[in-house]
Amino acid sequence: MNPIKFKQIFTQYKILALLAAIALIWLFFSWKTDGGFTSARNLSNLMRQMAITGILACGMVFVIIAGEIDLSVGSLLGLLGGVAAVLDVSHHLPLPLIVLLVLACGLVLGIFNGYLVAYAGIPSFIVGLGGMLAYRGIVLGVTDGTTVAPVSPEMVYLGQGYLSPDLSIGLGVLLFVLAAVLTWRQRASLAHHGLPVPTALRDGVRLLAIGAVLYSVVRTLHSYEGIPLPVLLLLVLLAVFSYVATQTVFGRRIYAVGSNMEATRLSGVNVRAVKLWIFGLMGLMCALAGLINTARLAAGSPSAGTSGELDVIAACFIGGTSMRGGSGTVYGALIGALVMASLDNGMSMLDVDSYWQMIVKGAILTLAVWVDVVTRSARR
């Protein structure tokens, strides 16, 4: 096959290639662990691990699409998770108030980062690098460099609770119905605008594949405890951020800023405001991820989120978000987060040395950027 033609096909079916890669990763680790990797218990744990990176990826994908980067997300997660633990353990505040205060702190710090980038003119790389050091220092001060524990059972439930089996089945049915409705609306919209409509067979096969995946996931998790609450939160965020990206003016402006910032500015869009709120959303996602991480560990750790920014950025690049900005999807970033979580989980089960884990993840990040470069050249 012509190399250029191969690149074009790979570009068009990148998500399918990622799903195939996940299947191969799972098969390999399942083989090496005698089926332990694909057990219901481990897959439930894997989903909870993936939820932390996935929540951060929802915000990071917007940042990268807009042509920026945020290296402070790991440290900010650790800071906000530490604040949540201190408010819970030392001050005994009610959980709703803790959640509200932590989310507010995340929004304010995210907007502060955005102000430095959009209005002060400091490159986002430098703002993120400075934040990575400063926020890590603050969390060490907030926690006195020690683990803050134990957090209340109410907070622990946020990270370790499950949706009941019956509700898990209901959620699976709801998601399948939603996929069918969206498919029907897409077909109707294409027909209304006189655009080519995919064959009914193609859409039918796609819906059957979605149904099979949902059935397998729900059945597997149902056989253990049900769907973990962090995964439920991640599904909600996937729906919200996908809607914002594809169905709102703000979402279209994010892509426009990343594609050609100067042309977008000249067309009357307030580019600075767009970037400000993108970083504000990133701060909110750090707050959510920090809360879930503290709840999952039942403690606030001063080392929480260390190197988390690398996993999140890698997840976005693996999922097809371009390092040059202007293109990317939320669901692609979440698939990338699943790849990273699967590698972390599988290598930990095999007791792979930490330095090899770092080498593997670094190589995958480099490979993801290389794929972006070659597929971009193929589209020219």
From TrEMBL:
It is found in: Cell membrane. The keyword Transmembrane applies. PANTHER family: ABC TRANSPORTER PERMEASE PROTEIN YPHD-RELATED-RELATED, XYLOSE TRANSPORT SYSTEM PERMEASE PROTEIN XYLH. This is Xylose transport system permease protein XylH. Part of the binding-protein-dependent transport system for D-xylose. Probably responsible for the translocation of the substrate across the membrane. Keywords: Cell inner membrane, Cell membrane, Membrane, Sugar transport, Transmembrane, Transmembrane helix, Transport. One of its GO terms (cellular component) is plasma membrane. InterPro entries: ABC_transp_permease. It comes from the Bacteria. It holds the Pfam family BPD_transp_2. The chain crosses the membrane at residues 12-29, 49-66, 73-91, 97-118, 125-142, 162-184, 204-221, 227-245, 274-292, 355-374. It is a multi-pass membrane protein. One of its GO terms (molecular function) is transmembrane transporter activity. Its main location: membrane. It comes from Massilia violaceinigra.
